[in-house]
Design goal:
It is built from 3 helices and 4 strands. By secondary structure, the chain is α+β, with helices and mostly antiparallel strands.
């Protein structure tokens, strides 16, 4: 499997601020690697502020289905698994 990160913006202060808001505290200092690891493992809702655009290659079909159906991100796009051919004369796709 290959994965390429296409776009990433550091939003860890926003994640920390929204996390601290849930417990009635201020955001404080920039989060440590340990804090980041803990919040990612806890799957606490403020991590939804993190946006990463990635492209995956050579992943098993069942993994694609899992990503699409369980919404690990905001918008999941995957290549069709149908056998499609394009008929140039008719301007239509035909199942092959």
């Amino acid at each position: 499997m290959r994965c390429f990160i296409k776009d990433y913006t550091d939003k860890w202060m926003l994640v920390k601020e929204t996390t601290m808001t849930t417990i009635g505290k201020d955001r404080g200092k920039y989060p440590t690697s340990e804090w980041k690891r803990k919040i990612l493992r806890s799957e606490h809702s403020p991590i939804r502020n993190i946006n990463i655009t990635a492209k995956f290659y050579d992943i098993p079909y069942w993994v694609v289905g899992h990503f699409v159906r369980h919404k690990f991100g905001k918008w999941i796009l995957c290549r069709t698994k149908r056998l499609l051919t394009f008929n140039r004369k008719k301007g239509l796709f035909n199942n092959g």
